[in-house]
Amino acid sequence: MAVPVTIDHRSTDYSLKRAYWLALASDLAYKDESVIDAQAREWGFPTVRHHETRFTPPFPLQDTQAYTMADDDMIVTAFRGTEPRQIKDWLTDATAPPRRGPADTGYVHDGFGEALQSIWPDVRNTHRELRTDGQSVWFTGHSLGGALAMLAGAWMYLEDPRLAADGVYTYGQPRTCDARLAKACNKGLKGRMYRFVNNNDVVAQLPPEPAYSHAESLRYIDSHGKVRDAMPLIGGLTDRAAGMLADPLAPATDGVRDHLMHAYLTALEKNLS
Q1: I need a surface site. Which of 101, 108, 116, 166 has the fewest CB within 10 A?
Q2: Mean pLDDT calculated for residue range 135-151
Q3: Which residue ranges traverse the bilayer (predicted)?
């Protein structure tokens, strides 16, 4: 396989090429609006909408940002992430109580729930306006953006299963919800939701279990950069140890390095070369 230079707007099947391209879309969410607009047009999306709002504690005052790009076949919403150190601080803060999940299904991390709800009405209205002819729908994001993409997919499905997204691809996503909501996603978004985790990515291991869970959608990138359908039951700890020892001068920083969007793009490119 070669690294894709064009975007397939019509297929909906899982592929590493689609995972790579949606990782690019997630990375683009960190850029300025003018850069997003230009790249979206280059990818063949004539319509671009930007979403931004502010939310308050339990997180520090923060912008929630996303963009939606659309054509006659495909609608993609990519949520912006945040710095690894900042999100780690948020996820280890146990003072914030959880909030009810979509359609009263389980519960979600309060900060993520508040962040999504601050922007969800605008995103949802944009999809209602642009989804006029059965276009496929995709949510994606890295880090905090991955948590918001996962919750957006869950909210859309549980509000109306007929409108379920065709794909939810996340990168370095933290645990976002409890086991009940994760189970609902496993059932309703099976074969549509994929959570990429790069070796020792520290954010993907937070907040701690059992209070918070991941949906069963793992695509694990091992210490050699190979994408696997799951973390191996035998050898998983060994592989993580190998990743930590890859840089003997700074093994403790491996979890942060593995979380960087650049690390995900590099690994996916390697699997496509």
Answers
A1: 166
A2: 96
A3: none
